[in-house]
Amino acid sequence: MRKRILTILVIFGIAFEAYAQIDPSFSQYYAAPMEVNPGFTGSTAAHRVIFNGRVQWPNLPQAFQTMAASYDFWRPELKSGFGIQVVTDKAGSAELRNTSARFSYSYKIMVGNWVFSPGLYFGYSFNTFDANKLLFGDQLDYSNGTLPPSLDPNVAKLNQIQYFDTGAGLLLYSSNSWIGASVYHLNQPNVSIIDGDSRWPLKIVVHGGVRLPIYGDHHRTQQISSVSPSFMYRYQGGTHQLDVGIQYMVAPVVVGLWYRGVPFIEDYNGKSTRDAAIFSMGLIFNYFEFGYSYDFTISELSARTGGAHEVSLIYEFELVTHPRRVSRKNKILPCPTFHSKSNIGAGIFRKN
What we know:
Elements: H1 2-20, H2 33-36, E1 47-56, E2 64-75, E3 80-91, E4 96-107, E5 109-111, E6 114-128, E7 161-173, E8 177-184, E9 203-210, E10 212-215, E11 223-236, E12 239-250, E13 253-260, E14 276-284, E15 288-297, E16 308-317
Antiparallel strand pairs: 1-2, 1-16, 2-3, 3-4, 4-6, 5-6, 6-7, 7-8, 8-9, 9-11, 10-11, 11-12, 12-13, 13-14, 14-15, 15-16
């Protein structure tokens, strides 16, 4: 019986570590810029607050739930962006939860008509679970149906852990296009909960896109809509993920269609890595954006899992202050969101 209980503990620990080692992802990655690249920190002229919420496989008893909140702003006199972000996700009957808090920074450099934006982040994370919701073999009492607490000392092997985390990214963008790469968990912290050594693998992200304005006249003076194709590739712990799609916007409405999967690459079972088809829609106003998306499962998982629902809220605002005088050469304004009503780089090279 003790061997069986220990086996359960080890299996639980391995499952927890496998869960903890794969970062949560958002289908609306363009609405979670600091989850893509810290170089996006301070990527609007205003102060920006973002909320992202995702529920994956809602038809299962214990769905995966992910939430993120961030705040970032731009300081032109320092040519720098500053931001903070909190991400938390939960899964399983024991409420396995990973929570991360990060501080991010970016610096903007003009290179011709482009802006080069290196960025980095420092974070602190902790993993928790509710051991009271786990059921072990010595708790099963078929005589009276009660569930006494487990007396096995191996239960103490399950630890709740805390660790530091860091990462960096490079971003290059112009008035209508962007490309970048980032690496998360550069220090590869130990996330083992069973007194072992299990390192959080690097997450490597490559992303890019272009915004194509559509005009209503031959003189190209009246923009009526825009089309924005983009992609994001992620690799972490032997897992490949590619999101590719397109958004179409006629203010204030934006709709998008995406595919998640990696063609010609099979998983460890030799099966296709196709994952989901994603439909998104949203509303974009001067200072507020709302987005909703649904993931249609196209993998070998049953569609009865319920796919995934996701929402995003973005609010931008300006603080009424008495700013110091900023020299012309420092007035580099970063890009707004990928589907903004204005050009992506509108005001990047603002002059006095």
